[in-house]
């Protein structure tokens, strides 16, 4: 065997006087590909291809940078004077387009999309956030256990290579290589949150992930941390008035603990964090029949049922349209400031006024029915958003009268067009002014 190999090796050795029927023509190897290209207009096709590719690559990234963001001022944030190095800086005007990723992207190159996890991304707020991040050119991984979220909310991204969906409960640890974590996973309505301990354990796991991979972490906290507030409107420096043992405390205190954990990871482990305190938000893709006041009124009016007002209906809330919230969350994530920031619409409505707007929008003849109020339902809720205005350059743009019809269109389609959603029956729910 060995000798056979040696023999063949010798046979292939080139020798200067080997006979070759064709004389060696070095210029043929150059001319042949040129002739090949010139035949059947191949060259024209190649040139057109190059032109199209150049056009696409030069247009695509700029279209994802077209969002109307104002860069955040460099002004210091008195309460959260962090010594951490920020990976994101804004240079001049133009928002994301002018963002320099801390030296990761060499000057002159287009901004590279980030890898972002959105926990709870199949839910109401999360799915709208995912839409914006994908549109911006980022790669998004949604982590959701579908407790209250729906695949339908993100289905339009299936097949997009920049989108991934993982069915996972955040109370279990998870390892992913990402740049940013938007942590939304948590049942947000009174009907659901009583059954789920997501807030503390889930937040702990996601903070652990942020620490491990060096990702920036944004917590979606809530106005519920102010409890039944003794200060009105609520400023971020107000510490709240929360019943620690009431039926709502798993949510209220859960979010307060989540804020504490977030700040501890920031101070103790150097994790870059952001905290948003979200006030009542409404819009398309909200869970129908989940006990939140706007979705309940809209669903009831569409089904020709009386609108249920709990208590005397004089308790107030502010209602923010979902696109305003998503804009605020993204500005907070990309900005320099830890927070907490109130993100809400300061327009204040009593429950009866809200019912009236729903009547005007859907059915002027809709009746109102009064029922006893739920335990610990806050009397007043209105955000002071001065801090978000000053430091994030953010304020809500969509009024209730403009936003409500957009939500009604979606609810109408889901209630009457998709019978799988509600089975044609009204679920009996505990309603609150949330
Ligand atoms: N919508 C509001 O008015 C409002 C107000 C204040 C705070 N928030 C906060 O914003 C976030 C999003 O709220 P939303 O209104 O979109 O609620 P949602 O219920 O529509 O979305 C929550 C999502 O989290 C998922 N989820 C729940 N538990 C999970 C778990 N253990 N593991 C993985 N996924 C889980 C759900 O399936 C759902 O997709 C929540 O953290 C909520 O507390 C919302």
What's this entry about, in short?
With 434 residues, the protein is α/β, with parallel strands linked by helices.
Provide a descriptive summary of the structure in words.
It is found in: Golgi apparatus, Golgi stack membrane. Pathway: Nucleotide-sugar biosynthesis; UDP-alpha-D-xylose biosynthesis; UDP-alpha-D-xylose from UDP-alpha-D-glucuronate: step 1/1. Its cofactor is NAD(+). It is an enzyme of class 4 (lyase). InterPro entries: NAD(P)-bd_dom, NAD(P)-bd_dom_sf, UXS-like. With 434 residues, the protein is an alpha/beta fold. It is globular. The chain has a domain at 85-282 and 320-346 and 379-398: NAD(P)-binding Rossmann-like Domain (Rossmann fold), CATH 3.40.50. The strands form 5 sheets. Strands 5-4-3-6-7-8-13 form a 7-stranded parallel beta sheet, sandwiched between helices. The protein has a two-stranded antiparallel ribbon with strand order 1-2. A two-stranded parallel sheet has the order 9-12. It contains 12 helices and 15 strands. The chain binds nicotinamide-adenine-dinucleotide (NAD). Nicotinamide-adenine-dinucleotide is lined by residues 119-120, 122-126, 144-149, 169-171, 184-188, 196, 198, 202, 220, 222, 278, 280-281, 287.
**How would you describe the shape?**
globular
How many strand units?
15
What hetero molecules are in the model?
nicotinamide-adenine-dinucleotide
CATH superfamily of the domain at 85-282 and 320-346 and 379-398: NAD(P)-binding Rossmann-like Domain
So how many helices?
Answer: 12
The level-1 CATH class of the domain at 85-282 and 320-346 and 379-398: Alpha Beta
CATH topology of the domain at 85-282 and 320-346 and 379-398: Rossmann fold
The fraction of residues assigned to DSSP E strands is 5-15%
Quaternary status: single chain
Spans of at least 5 consecutive residues with low confidence: 1-21, 61-108, 419-434
Q: What series of H and E elements makes up the topology? A: HHHEEEHEEEHHEHEEHEEEHEEHEHH
Q: Helical proportion?
A: 25-40%
Strand order in the sheet with the most strands: 5-4-3-6-7-8-13
InterPro entries: NAD(P)-bd_dom, NAD(P)-bd_dom_sf, UXS-like
Transmembrane segments: 42-60
Domain NAD(P)-binding: 118-405
Main location: Golgi
């Amino acid at each position: 065997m060995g000798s056979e190999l040696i023999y063949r090796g010798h046979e292939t050795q080139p020798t200067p006087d080997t006979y070759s029927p064709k004389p060696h023509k070095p210029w043929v190897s150059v001319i042949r590909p040129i002739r090949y290209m010139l035949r059947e207009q191949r060259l024209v096709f190649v040139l057109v291809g190059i032109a199209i590719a150049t056009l696409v690559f030069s247009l695509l990234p700029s279209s994802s940078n077209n969002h109307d963001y104002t860069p955040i001022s460099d002004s210091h944030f008195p309460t959260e004077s962090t010594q951490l190095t920020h990976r994101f800086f804004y240079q001049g005007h133009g928002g994301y387009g002018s963002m320099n990723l801390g030296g990761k992207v060499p000057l002159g190159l287009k901004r590279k999309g980030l890898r972002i996890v959105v926990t709870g991304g199949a839910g109401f707020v999360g799915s709208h956030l995912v839409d914006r991040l994908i549109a911006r050119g980022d790669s998004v991984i949604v982590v959701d256990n579908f407790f209250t979220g729906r695949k339908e909310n993100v289905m339009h991204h299936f097949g997009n290579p920049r989108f991934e969906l993982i069915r996972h409960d955040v109370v279990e640890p998870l390892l992913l290589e990402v740049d940013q974590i938007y942590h939304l996973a948590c049942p947000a309505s009174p009907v659901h949150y009583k059954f789920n301990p997501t807030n503390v354990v889930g937040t702990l796991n996601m903070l652990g992930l942020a620490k491990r991979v060096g990702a920036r972490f944004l917590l979606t906290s809530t106005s519920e941390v102010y409890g039944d507030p003794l200060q009105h409107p609520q400023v971020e420096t107000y510490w709240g008035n929360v019943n620690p043992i009431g039926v709502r405390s798993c949510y209220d205190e859960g979010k307060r603990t989540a804020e504490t954990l977030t700040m501890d990871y920031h101070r103790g482990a150097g994790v870059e964090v952001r905290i948003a305190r979200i006030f009542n938000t409404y819009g398309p893709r909200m869970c129908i029949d989940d006990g939140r006041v706007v979705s309940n009124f809209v669903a009831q009016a569409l089904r020709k049922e009386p609108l249920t007002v709990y208590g005397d209906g004089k308790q107030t809330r502010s209602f923010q349209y979902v696109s305003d919230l998503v804009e605020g969350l993204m500005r907070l994530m990309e900005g320099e400031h830890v927070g907490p920031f109130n993100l809400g619409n300061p327009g204040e409505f009593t429950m009866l006024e809200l019912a009236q707007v729903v009547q005007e929008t859907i059915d002027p003849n809709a009746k109102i029915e009064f029922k006893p109020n739920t335990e610990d339902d806050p009397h007043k809720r209105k955000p002071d958003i001065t801090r978000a205005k000053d430091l994030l350059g953010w304020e809500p743009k969509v009024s209730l009268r403009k936003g409500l019809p957009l939500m009604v269109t979606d609810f109408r389609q889901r209630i009457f067009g998709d019978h799988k959603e509600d089975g044609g029956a009204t679920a009996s729910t505990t309603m609150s002014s949330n």
